[in-house]
Amino acid sequence: MRFFPYDQPYENQRKAMDRIYNSLHQGRDVLFEGACGTGKTLSSLVPALEIAREQDKTVVITTNVHQQMRQFVAEARAITRGESIRAVVFKGKASMCHIDVGYEECQALRDNTRAVVDAERDREQLERRQRELLAESQDGDGSAADARSAVMDELEGIEERLDDLEEQNVCDYYRNNLTEDTDEFFGWLFEDVRTPDEIYEYADQRQFCGYELLKEGIEGVDLVVCNYHHLLDSTIRDQFFRWLGRDPDDVIAVFDEAHNVEDAAREHATRTCSERTFDSALDELAETDDPRSADAANVLSAFHRALVETYEESFGFGDREQLGENWSDVPIANDDRKDDLTLEFLQRYSGRGIEDDLEAAMKLGQELDEEYEEAYREGETATRTECQTLQAAAFVSAWMTEGSKEGLYPVVSVTRDAGTDEVYGRAELYTCLPRQVTGELFDEVHATVLMSATLQPFDVTEDVLGLEDAVTMAYGLQFPEENRRTYAVETPPLFSSDRDDPAVQAEVAETISDAVRMTPGNTLAFFPNYGEASRYADRLERHSDRTVYLDEPGESVEELRKRFVADDDAVLCTSLWGTLAEGVSFDGDDAHTVLVVGVPYPHLDDRAEAVQDAYDVAFDGTDTGWRYAVEIPTVRKTRQALGRVLRSPAEVGVRALLDRRYSRSAKSDLGKYSVNGTFPHEEREELIDIDPAKLKFAMLNFYGGHDEYDGEPPAP
User: Fold this and answer.
1) Is the per-residue pLDDT at 622 higher than 80?
2) Three-state SS for 457?
């Protein structure tokens, strides 16, 4: 309890802390599902810090949601008020760089700057020594004169070296890190829990590089708050642990919003290479005199031509003209043979051997990359050039050696450049099995806590992420049950084939209108996609006196949210797959009712099919892929949306699922199309099946019973 910053924990919070403490003590992973109000953050953080203190470990808590990052900072600050801990909030270099350079440029600048500072220090020492020897020689010491002569020779060499170094690129901010007193910075850093923005501003005022100072100060801290990529990207993770001064087994990892880890792991493991990279690589090779350039160009140009031909052949009449700025996939995978791009590449390639040519391209690329590094260090170029040959060759090598591995799916995508109107493509090795990324991480670290409001079913989460023998716990809403109602409204199932049916639209629209009208305040309405959100927003605007806000792609979500919550009787229509469905809270009177209209299955493209197939193979089941990859993530999205309201014990609200597939009574009729059984048991028990025509009366009675209406309630 020494790390618990408030008077007393909730009853379930204390139980959760005890179980998590015991699990971490044994080095076991934990899956922790807790609804809003269960205090998940402190339930995980407090026992993790206790184990870290007892066993000399570091706690790393990570999220991909900005709002949660702020919550972590607030909780860490509260802890430091009662117990001394050293905590830092770590962000990527790109967001903290004062001169806005890339990683490779930064590395070269730091090396150059350090070389200049080291040379200047050597010069100071030699000058001091020569003055001492001069004084000794003037006192009659003959050997001192000889020694001074040798020192003067060294000084001359240092001066020449400094003349050369001064012409190279250096970073003045990093130079100040090396030459100025930074004790004040570190004293300030650990007086409180500082955000990356605060660190940037403080360092900028003093002309320091805050990012590099943060890397120096991070070693041996008790708590680090960071983004997913610091743990999910294996290369970044290795560096990150070195900065911490910790072996992986000395780290306790806590993942917030852990239902997102599956997709984040896929994203970090997927490899891509665009047509433009191949163009640049071939231009680079054309300017190179090295005899290996011919072999390198031979293999890369064959892959480049194969890529272009593959997507060109996929275009039907008018397809090219309809391409937009978003990437569109071109199916290339085959069940009985290699993918179309590989086949096209093998057909077009002619040379001494693909492996030999790729080896030549890789070695030449590495040497060119070293030359670019040296040129930047020496000040011959203003920016650090990236070697495109090395990138292209590494990708083609991975494509040929790893493309047929389990869980990797080859894809070609195509897009249109908004500026030039040019169509170009890319090749991609898409990772279907997240456990290929996360399994290694969970094996390395001491223990992990994965927490979210939507982690169940736990066995699926364990399978997908590669966890073994995890401790599981789940706590539902701790708020008074009399303050909420959760309805499964038996409107017609919004199958994609029925969404354009006028009768279906009319019944769904009337039910939405009833729910909005019976709500004493704002209503959130989530739909399967932005198109459906727009369709029913139009109907509400025509038939309702409430203000209707429509979330559209490209619009500032935060600005829309501010306008919506400033209103009193409004409805906000958005896609369940948008950014408002999770990580955004609607507290107090921001919204009272939340509607989820339809079962928002994602667009089932070839990638989704590949993931399903990979899960079927990995987990030995014909229906496993659909359940793991589609149905469960969809219901998790629905549950996340329901959690946007009812954020405190005093709040009163209605949560309604508008689609017969959610109801208990329709399970026997709809069979596999029913999703009622996919909800956790305690949430299914709260679902009240209701006829659409009766929803308005139920809501009127519920809200009326809580004195939520000012004056007379609206007529049903």
Assistant:
1) no
2) coil
Measure the CA angle with vertex 205, ends 199 and 211; round to 5°. 35
Enumerate residues 6+ apart whose C-beta is below 8 A from 84: none
Vertex 563 angle, CA 545 and 260, to 5°? 110
- pLDDT digits over 289-331, tens only? 999 999 999 999 999 999 999 999 999 888 888 898 889 999 8
Find all residues with CB under 8 Å of 216, minimum gap 6, and list them: none
Q: Beta strands of 482-535 (E only): which ranges?
A: 484-489, 523-527
H or E segment at 12? helix 11-25
Report d(CA 663, CA 15) in Å as an integer. Answer: 33
Residue 70 and residue 61: Cα distance in Å, rounded? 12
Strand 58-63 relative to strand 251-255, pairing: parallel
Q: What does the chain come to in residues? A: 716
DSSP state, residue 494: -
Tokens 């039907």 belong to residue: 316
pLDDT digits (tens, 9 = 90+) for 628-677: 999 999 999 999 999 988 888 889 999 999 999 999 998 888 888 899 99
Which one, of 674, 689, 684, 573, lies nearest residue 631 by Cα? 674
Alpha-carbon distances, residue 68 vs 52, 183, 193, 280, 456 (angstroms): 22, 31, 15, 40, 21
Quote the tokens at residue 658.
């508008």
Structure tokens at 465: 């992420």
CA gap 24, 31 in Å, rounded: 12
- Answer whether the bond into residue 493 is a cis peptide, omega within 30°: no
What are the distances in angstroms from CA 581 to CA 52, 593, 642? 34, 14, 8
The residues, any chain, with a CB within 8 Å of residue 366's CB and separated by 6 or more, are 387, 390
Tokens of 134: 């001069």
Which ranges of 326-427 would DSSP assign to H, the alpha helix? Answer: 340-348, 354-377, 388-402
Contact between residue 88 and residue 225 where contact means Cβ atoms under 8 Å apart: yes
List the beta strands (DSSP E) in 528-591. Answer: 547-550, 570-575
Report yes or no: 498 and 504 within 8 Å, Cβ to Cβ: yes
Q: Give 274's strand partners.
A: 426
Q: Name 271's bridge partners.
A: 429
3-state secondary structure of 4: coil
**Tokens linked to 315:** 């275009």
CB proximity list for 610: less than 8 A, separation 6 or greater: 333, 409, 430, 432
Tokens encoding 274: 């665009």
Note if the pTM is more than 0.90: no
Three-state secondary structure readout of 620-631? CCCCHHHHHHHH
Distance of CA 152 to the CA centre of its chain: 57
557-564 long-range CB contacts below 8 Å, 24 or more apart? 557/584, 564/522, 564/590, 564/591
- Evaluate whether 48 touches 24 at the Cβ level (below 8 Å): yes
Task: Provide the residue type at 41 as one letter.
Answer: T
Helix (H) or strand (E) run with residue 330 in it: strand 328-330
Q: Which residues contact 686 (CB under 8 A, 6 or more apart)?
A: 481, 486
Question: Is residue 168 a contact partner of residue 112, using CB atoms and an 8 Å limit?
Answer: yes
- Rounded to whole angstroms, the Cα distance separating 394 from 294 reads 17
Measured distance CA(175)–CA(187) in Å, rounded: 20
Closest C-alpha among 341, 215, 334, 366 to residue 275: 341
For residue 163, report the phi and psi dihedrals to the nearest 5 degrees: -60, -40
